[in-house]
Amino acid sequence: MSSLKYLSAYSEQTQQQVSQLIAQNKLGEVLLKRYSKPHDLRTDRALYQYVQELKTEYLRNAEPINKVEYDSKIHVINHALGLHTSISRVQGGKLKAKHEIRVATMFKEVPLEFLRMIAVHELAHVKEKQHDKAFYKLCTYMEPNYHQYEFDLRLYLTQLDTEGRKLWT
């Protein structure tokens, strides 16, 4: 089951069910039934606005996000869907941090639920640096279906690996 590298943390039963869908060439079909169309946030400006709206709604008191953009240099192969970076600089007598969120360009053409999951994940890093219980609690606070969307996104990445075609173009 080497083709299931994105699902390696899931149970053997789940992996077997996914393998059956792959063998029947139905994995893409299942995803298309669940998520029929891609989002329309194609530009960096639209993505920035979307992330800012999420931040305003759920993380009002968090530090500001200075930049949000799609990044063609992020490769999912390295297990990165997006990146949150914090650059600290001394200005006057104070330490100032600039937060940036970058999302892999391949996610310009996916359902909004997948993009939301990535945005919520990266926003959660503003408050919680580690992938611990508090981090995932914050993610599910911002998006109650976070874990389902993450699983479905992993299914999509598996489908891309096995079939090599995008579903929402």
Automatic annotation (TrEMBL):
Stretches assigned to the YgjP-like metallopeptidase domain: 94-153
Highest taxon above the source species: Bacteria
Name listed for the protein in its UniProt record: M48 family metallopeptidase
Organism: Duganella aceris
